[in-house]
Every structure is written in structure tokens, then in C-alpha cells.
Amino acid sequence: MDRRRQSESRPNQSEVNVVVDDSTASSGRLLHLHALSIDSASLPNANEQMSRWSTLVLAYKTLGVVFGGLVTSPLYVYPSMPLKSPTKEDYLGIYSIMFWTLTLIGVVKYASIAIKADDQGEGGTFALYSLLCRHVNIGILSSKRVSSNSSLSHSMQEGTEKKSRLGIFFESSIVARRVLLFVAILGMCMLIGDGILTPAISVLLAMDGLRAPFPSVSKSLVEALSAVVLVVLFLLQKFGTSRVSFLFLPIMAAWTLSTPLVGIYSIIHHYPSIFKAISPHYIFHFFWRNGKEGWLLLGGTVLCITGSEAMFADLGHFNQRSIQIAFLLTIYPSLVLTYAGQTAYLIKNLNDHDD
């Protein structure tokens, strides 16, 4: 009887194990949940740091893809101008035009406005047309409303209930819709043409630089070498944006950083007060003095923004922030200093603009 009572009063070993297991499991779950809460609290900061780092890496990669045409434009801006006996005032006016062209077209138009008009992360002329077709019934493409991450898309969606007069006009006029399609196709063709001509001009002028240290190099040899380089460049496109960017990054980064250093040297050595030409009144006096000849020179000054459209056209390969960081912090200051150095040198060497 005593043994039976002791066995009844003593808890079962399995029950003890269950209790212990339950207590340890619950405490383990509590510790796990506490660790998760700590990780979740630190996760946004980690993600934010990773996002910033990846954006900076993308910004660095844009130098090898997006801005190749823009940073090489100093090779041919001044040589393409039909200057005849230019004066110091002429060069100050030309630099003022180039500075404000880079500022208004590069900084304001592309880096601040156009780059935000993406179509679900894609940029370019057809992206704009597709965005219009999605929100306005202009034919060709469906006007079905779909979600988009574009800031322009959100602003357009807010105004879907009340359409603008321009939207109503395009919907009601078939001629206007066809003209809009023609403009979109024309813009695409011009972009393709620029993508073909700009590398050809850049490579040809770069190769022509061989004739300075090596006068024995003939012009036909320069053209043949340029053709070989261009064929190799276009054959490399099939390997994708990432590999092409990796290949050209060191070259374009070295070019982008070295040309403003040469510009700073020329500014200090030849004409330190060159930045007074930033004042727009030099533009007014330039056209006032030169008249029609001044307007003809605009064909050369506009070349300083050659390749700037790639900031919007190549948006699908990169994001908005990376392109903006690369342009505003490296490309734009580099070009401003490079053109300033060229102009400072030409003010002291008035007839060297062809080289």
C-alpha cells in the first residue's frame, strides 16, 4: 500500500519531461522572437546602407556606359566652330553659351525633369510615348491604366478624372495622334543616328591625335585604325551592359578625372578670371557683335551636350539616383572645368581653336 501511494504521489517521469520540454521550448521561442525583433529593428538601417552602397556602385558604373559621348565632346566642340579671327570677348561669349547650355539642358532638363518621366523604370522616346498611350486614348497602344512607379505616372493618374485640354485634343484629332507618333519615331531615329555618329567622330578625332607626336602617320591610316576600333566596339555590345561597363570604366573614369585637372592648370596658368563668363550678359554681347555669324556658331556650341540624352535613354540599365549622382557630382563639374580650361588657353592663343 505504501509503495502504491508513493508511486501515485510521485509524478510520472514522462510528465516531468513534457513540462521541462514545454518550458524550454517556450523560452526558446521567446528568445527567438526577441532576436527577430532585434534583427527587424536593425534591418531597415542595414537595407538603407546596402541601398546607398549599391546606388554609389551604379553611379560609378554609369561612367562607362551613359556618359561616354558627353565627356568626350570637348574633343570636337571648338574644332567644329567656323571661327574667323576670334577675340577674347568671342571666347568669353562662347564659354558662357556652353556653360548655360550644359546647365539648362543637362542639369535642369535631363537630370531634374526628363529622368523622372520614366515608364516603369524605362526611359527613352518610346517610353514617353508609351506613358502617354497608357493614360490618354491616342490609339496604337492600349490606354489601359496600369500601376507604374513613375512620379510622372502618379501625377497623371491623379488627373485621370479631369483630363487636360491637350489630352482631349489628341483623343479627338486623328491628325494630332499621327503627328505625335511621327515625332516619337523621329526622336528615336535621331537617337540612333546620334549613337552611330558620336562614337565615329570621337574615335576618329582621338586617333587623329596620333599625328601630332608621329607626323609620319598618314590620314588614311588614321581612318583605317578608327574603323577597326569602331568595329571592335560595336562587336562588344553583345556581351551586355555590365561587361561593357566593366571594360570601359577605368578608361572613362581616368578621362573624366584627368581632363578637369588639365583645365584647372590652364585656368591658373593662362586666364584665372575665366569664370566671369558665367554671367549671361557675355552671351548678349556675343550675338550683338557677331550677328548672323554668332548664330551660325551655335551649331558648334550645341555639340557640348552631345550624349546628354543618354541620361534618359539609358534609364532602364540604371536607376534615377545613380545617374543623377554621377552627372551632378562628376560629369557636370568635369565638363565645366574642361571647357573653362580650353577657353582660358584659347584666350592667350587665339588661333589654336582648330586643334
UniProtKB/TrEMBL annotation:
Gene Ontology CC annotations of this record: plasma membrane
Highest taxon above the source species: Eukaryota
Alphabetical list of InterPro entries matching this protein: K+_transporter, K_trans_N
GO molecular function: potassium ion transmembrane transporter activity
Keywords: Membrane, Transmembrane, Transmembrane helix
Membrane topology: Multi-pass membrane protein
Annotated transmembrane regions: 58-79, 91-111, 179-205, 217-236, 248-268, 294-313, 325-347
Pfam families membership: K_trans
Presence of keyword Nucleotide-binding: no
Chain ranges of the K+ potassium transporter integral membrane domain: 59-352
Location(s) in or outside the cell: Cell membrane
Presence of the UniProt keyword Protease in the record: no
Family: Belongs to the HAK/KUP transporter (TC 2.A.72.3) family.
Annotated protein name in UniProt: K+ potassium transporter integral membrane domain-containing protein
Annotated source species: Quercus lobata
